[in-house]
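Long-time lurker. I teach an intro course on protein structure, and each term I like to show students one example going from raw sequence to a predicted 3D structure in token notation. This year I'd like something fresh instead of my usual example. Would anyone be willing to generate the tokens for the chain below so I can use it in lecture? Attribution to the forum is fine with me.
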Amino acid sequence: MMYDENKWNSNESYNYQQSYGTGGKEPKKKGNFFKKAVLLTLSAVFFGVVSGATMFGVNRLANLALPLETQVQMEAPQETLPPMSEAQVLPMPQETHAAMTTGVVIEDVSLIVEQAMPSVVAINNTMLYKSNSWFGQSQTYEIPSSGSGIIVGENETELLIVTNHHVVEDSNTLTVTFIDNSTVDAAIKGTDSQSDLAVIAVPLEKISADTKEQIKAIAIGDSDVLKMGQGVIAIGNALGHGQSVTVGHVSALNREVTVDGVKRTVIQTDAAINPGNSGGALLNAKGELIGINEAKYADETVEGVGYAIPISYAMNIIEDLKLRTTKVEVAEGEQGYLGIQVQNVDSVTAEMLGMPEGVYIYKIMEDSAAADSDLREKDIITKFDGETIKNNADLTGLLAYYKAGTTVTVTVQSLENGAYVEREVEVVLKNRPAEEEEKETRAQGLEGLMPRRP
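-- Reply from a regular --
Happy to contribute to a lecture. Here you go:
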């Protein structure tokens, strides 16, 4: 039979039958089986390499983007970790456990907050604000303000609460609201403007039995062992709306900042600290007090920068303030009297003449409390019973809280051999003499009454 190329190309059945003479069946080809096997093997190898590379890339990206979640997943099955004591283990909420098993971590601090909240109070204050009109007339306004406080203990008659000095400064009325929303009047016990700390007191007899069962003193931690990156919790009366909670980390330690003209060393945190949070608690993961919230950095270009006073630094000051005389105003006829005539030494005058800022004594009255003490004319009073004195108004305001017969410590700067030396003088206050009034002025300068520095 002759070979027909056209029929081979156009009729497959014809080709099979005519060319091979097998009745339409193609004979077996030994090479096809091996070719298919090789192709399948190569395909499998190629697929495995691509799949492995893809999974490696995904895992690598996951480690970079979510290192914490990946670490939790990888470390959880290990059994070589040392066992934790029961004291270290806190019950884990179901939602937190479920989230961790799926590789997502949710920070739940509700147990810590529940433990600490009975120790935090809201402070409401009415401050007196004085201003001068265009015609030179002085006007006084009452301005409401709010802050926070922390219960740090009690004495025989009072519950003691620490807060910031600027929260209670110039207060007219002062109240404290506890966790059960009960409100009680409070009074200043002691303040320290340099550290911005204050202790206020609430009479125990004014606190109901139900409230006493719900409140407690805060657990004190150690701010000296803090590390950058540790988690912290801030609790306070934010914006005066009641207690609220924010969470963050220690951003920096031993940060030097200047607040209201005073340089302080503080803890920096990214936990939100808003107006009203001042005086509130900064807690560690154990619910211990490690800082007293003080201020936030206010700038349109800055977010998440707040400051707290380290508790390890503050405790010595707090213990001293707890021992001060509670500032409950006494009747005018019973108020103590120093018997001095004074002039203010403000910051401008102090810098100009090289003198300490405070109250300059230019005359001591006869038969007065000052005359019976070691106070001297030309002394400059800088503290009264531990409270900083910047002007005569500060001194007069403090005397309103002390009865005649009370012994107080007056800190003065005395000029000795051309230099000022600090002294502490014990003074027993007397009653104001009926026949004379103390001549106290609020002069802005010395007006020639003080000698020039030698």
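Some talking points for your students: The mean pLDDT is 77. The radius of gyration is 39 Å.
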